[in-house]
Amino acid sequence: SIKDTLPLEHGAHRIGNRTDADMTRWRSQRLGQFIHWGLYAIPGGEWKGKTYNGAAEWIRSWKEMPQQEYDNLYKQFNPVNYRPEEWAQQASDMGAKYMIITTKHHDGFCLWPSKYSKYTVAASPWKKDIIGPMVDAYNKKGIDVYLYFSIIDWNQPDWRAALKTPADAAAYQRFKVFVKNQLTELLQRYPTVKGFWFDGTWDDSWKNDGAFSDELEQYLQRLHPGLIIGSRLRADEKGARHFDSNSRLMGDYEQGWERKLPEKSADVHGNDWEGVMTIPENQWGYNAKWTGHIKSSNELIEMLVKSASLGGNFVINFGPKSDGTFRTEEVQRMQEIGHWMKINSSAIDGGTDAGFAKQDWGYYIRKSGTDSVYMVVCNVPVSGNLRVKLPAQTTLANVTSLEKNIISGTPELIGKNEYFIHLDHKSQDAPFVILLQTSKEN
Length: 442
Ligand code: FHN
Known about the structure:
Helix 3 packs across helix 4 and helix 5 runs parallel beside helix 7. Helices cover 25% and strands 22% of the residues. It is built from 9 helices and 18 strands. It binds ligand FHN. Ligand FHN binds at residues 55, 57, 199, 258, 276, 284.
């Protein structure tokens, strides 16, 4: 609920979603690939025989690992098997339409040879830029690239989580110049990128400087028209994040859906949104030992479907090994999701909330701006009957399944605007899709 009671200088500057071509494209894409890659892939969640229980990319904050040892890992960064064309090919085969790469995570190590830092790939045995060849390879496959950038930077002496003294304030002033320089550098080096994916913006130092993040966002979007920036970057002048103190979304889409998804359309308030998901529980960077529940391809497909049905994008995270290859579990999921997408992607691309009453068998997805509604069936009823209740004054004009031999006969009218679609066989090993063409009653 929008209160709109406070006059805000650094709150939301736009009401409603962006309607320009870049954001329309983002909205049609729906499936993305996230990649967390950096020095943390070298220890992979282990140090001197001990296992770190947190997220692998946070191992530097573990008391068992001396920070100095972490900060020297760059001397071992040498991904001799890094083949960006293969990465792009497998992302494309998975059906990803965009990707997000960690140019710099919280540790501050830059995967591009930044002229503003000594802690970059240039100082590693690999020496070469990682980002440029990646952007080129993915773009060649028609995949848009977004740059993840952490504001938290454990390597910069001027970075502060909080400003307690005048010296802190002076250091943070310098840090802000450094951030702006790096971001400008990234846009100049990689002009085809579509946006920044900001992270590490929760510290007091950042939250209490809403004026800076606001000016920075406007500056970046002037420099690179169309640039997409989610709601994690900014805080308003009262320190409210994502949504300003009048409950209006800041940034181009809601970026707070991390390892969780909305349940119903009311949860997203009509805003563009994106969910990011790990395959294991909370591991973004490479961890040699995945523990706990590991999501199957079908689970991830169901999450993708749910996201599209609620008008959002779904981004699956991968954490490559330090040599530049992907673990088999990840390769397998990319292939399985890709296999599913080859048959069913028309239900996902440009998908949005259908506005139909939810049914227990799964999710409805409307092809945006059309009368085509896809049913994605994730739970088959033992009766073999799929209930479809259309909105008032709507009739079912045509029903087809994207895979053959799924539907038996024609839909049975069982009530006003209500049907059973009968299944030919009930056993399925993956979600399946039925396309409904509806028309308005005269
Ligand atoms: O701390 C990070 C984490 O390592 C990872 O990068 C995720 C991705 O959304 N973001 C932060 C936690 O919110």
